[in-house]
Amino acid sequence: MALEKDILTVSEAARMCSVTRATVWRWIKAGRLRSAATAGGHHRIHLDDLQDLRRKNDMEIRIRYGRAERRILIVDDDPGVRKVLTRTLSREGYTVAWASDGFEAGLQTIRFKPDLIILDLFMPRVDGFEVCRRIKSDKETAHIRIIAVSGFADRENRQRILDYGADRFMPKPIDIRSIRKGISDLLK
After folding, report:
1. 47 occurs within a structural domain
2. Domain of 82?
3. How far apart are CA 138 and CA 122, in angstroms?
4. Helix, strand, or coil here: 132?
5. Of 20, 25, 66, 65, which is closest to residue 47 (Cα–Cα)?
């Protein structure tokens, strides 16, 4: 399979192996993975060296056009939230799609096949509770991780969405660091 590139950044190598950047750094520091430093001090890894490490340690490597593809669906009726999350997550290497209501979320789940959904609870047409219930009750989609978000973060809403199968609940306004950590934890 021809790849787009043979030289990888630490982040790209981490995504390909489904590990954190810190893990790749530990491999480099321990001498398990060869790297070269650029004039600016950034490390680059040759794809062949990463594949050698994988073979020696019997690790699965996830390559799709040169990188692991993790798909995140953002479901929120607020265009500002969608824009910020789309920009942030795309920069981190995720493939991102969005839906503006629960009905559209159902269609996008079938078409886009996300690994994770960031799901607002209160939207027009079909709310996030019903979206979560349907996704988690269908054997074809039950594996999809769901982070529920809402500006109405009372105990009742939190417990209700977790009972429907959401993996995490986070209050709005969304803290980008917390959402990154939640995504990282759930997609390991």
Report:
1. yes
2. 71-186
3. 22
4. helix
5. 66
Six-digit token string for 37: 């430093």
Q: How remote is the C-alpha of 127 from its chain's centroid?
A: 22
Query: Mean pLDDT across the stretch 50-78?
Result: 72
User: 102-157 pLDDT, tens per residue?
Assistant: 999 999 999 889 999 999 999 888 899 999 999 999 999 999 999 999 988 889 99
pLDDT for res 5: 61
Query: Both 117 and 167 in a single domain?
Result: yes
DSSP for 143-159, written as a single string: TSEEEEEES---HHHHH
Neighbours of 139 (CB within 10 A): 7
SS3 98: strand
CATH number at residue 50: 1.10.1660.10
